[in-house]
Specification:
Elements lengths: L11 H4 L6 E2 L4 H10 L5 E6 L2 E7 H8 L4 H5 L5
Parallel strand pairs: 1-2
Antiparallel strand pairs: 2-3
């Protein structure tokens, strides 16, 4: 791969996207309801004390919640 020094590189600020976040203490059932109500969200950062500790990918989360027993077994747990 050859780097083209003449090609314009976008500023870092143009790559940053504002996104809602999820507290690590949020319950799984609350997150499920939130994602059902906001289908445009693709992923959500998980924060603990203002530090990113993970990422929830909406499609994968909703798919896992649709499996038999998963919803009932995990709904009261924290994200």
């Amino acid at each position: 791969m050859v780097f083209n020094a003449e090609r314009e590189v976008p500023a870092l600020a143009s790559l940053v996207v504002s996104s809602p976040t999820v507290a690590a203490e949020m319950r799984v059932d609350s997150l499920h309801e939130y994602l059902i109500g906001n289908p445009e969200l693709h992923c959500l950062p998980v924060l603990r004390e203002e530090q990113v500790t993970g990422v929830i990918f909406s499609k994968e989360f909703l798919k896992s919640m649709s499996q038999q027993y998963v919803r009932e077994l995990s709904r009261r747990k924290s994200v």
